[in-house]
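Notebook p. 47: complex prediction with zinc ion.
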Amino acid sequence: MKRSIVVLALAAVVAAAGCERKDLGRTGLVNVGKHTWALIASGPTSVEGLGANSGFVVGSEGVLVVDARYTPALARELLEKIRTVTNAPILYVVNTHYHQDHTWGNSVFKDEGAVIVARPETRDAFVKYSPIYLDFYRERGAEAFALIADVRFVAPDTAFADGAKLDLGGVSVELRHFGPGHTAGDAVVVVPKDRVAFTGGLLTNGYHPNLGDPGADFDNWLKTLDRLRGLRVRRFVPAQGLVCGREAIEGVKRYIKAIREICVDALGKRYPLEDVVRTIAMPGTEGWLQPNILPFNVQAVYRHEIPRVVNPDFALDLPIEFLILDGGGDRKMGYIRWGSQSKEGYLEIETQWKTSSSAELIVQDLTDAISRYGQLGRRLMTIERTRRFDLPDGPAVGATGTWKSMEMAVDPGKGLWSWIMVLRGGKVYVIQCATDAAGDAAKERRNIARLERIAETFRQAR
Ligand SMILES: [Zn+2]
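Predicted complex, structure tokens below:
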């Protein structure tokens, strides 16, 4: 008798393990715990919601949705899946972070009466960046825009502190925030009863993680992954990819560490960014989806690591937003506010820094996740010399060099400009562009004199 119980128990274990393999390792609606479901995206394309997973937790009082998907249509599909499980009201939506593939379906659940919950950083970033992303898709053409034409921006209603609990009736859900990682406002949704956690963008499984967000923090991301591993959880629902265990955490950790090592090594050898983008091979990522994100990840890591590797004689910690005064007569320009909308769109700038002391080439990518969707084309700025300026309100470092459009054909002057930039306290105060001085010292002096006048105007205008 005893023996048959053991055999039965073993059979149950085998059945459960078999069940896990069969039912957890697939896309579509997956029951990951007694009260918890994940909707695993079928692939990374736009119509599949950019690969972003979502899910829901069901209590006797109602439902909590984790992430609202990329479009209202995809959100409605999630709502239909929920209705195959329960007719209970949708009480909450948690946005694990602000990215569009997790938030643009919010309106569907708002209309159901749900309260939308996120970190304050997520709410701020949603408000700031959603219109920018929308314009990006609008300008990419009718097909890309048709998918999201009916998106109605619904920002999170309320913010939570780390450790907040939401009661769904017999099932509680814990909201955790371990500091910035994938974005500044990552939320992890834990269902302790089911020992399940939804990780948001902190974790991907078989997809390249996205390191390009301006709010990303790689050091803290690695620490957070360790904390995820320490949660009393059996299953993780990653942002993208199949339901997984702790092994996926190791995969993302290895990825972040490897790409940083490669970039730090390349920076030390003064390899230009574009060489690294062209040649980088990431170990252990064969077959991972969304490899197109890797170049952006390299750019982002270069931007983060440069201050640790090089020690130039001026601050490299440039702000995302600053004014550029372009006096070069470019028909498209004028004042451009970096990373936010102007009538011209969004500007991407890649900068090549050459320190005056070492004459070694250092590459800095000044783009952020938004401005890289530039409508004005890519520009390459090369610093040829730095020098000190005495401006009326104190000393500043100026840099001179060339500024070249990557799509030269569309720019006047063959896209080559000399420029002068004043940096103080990590801020860019002014950039003056002129037609190429081409080593003409007198012309450069005139440019600098003009810069000083412009800087003075700018100072007075502030
Ligand atoms: Zn994301």
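Notes: The radius of gyration is 25 Å. The chain is about 35% helix and 25% strand.
Next step: compare against the earlier run before touching the bench.
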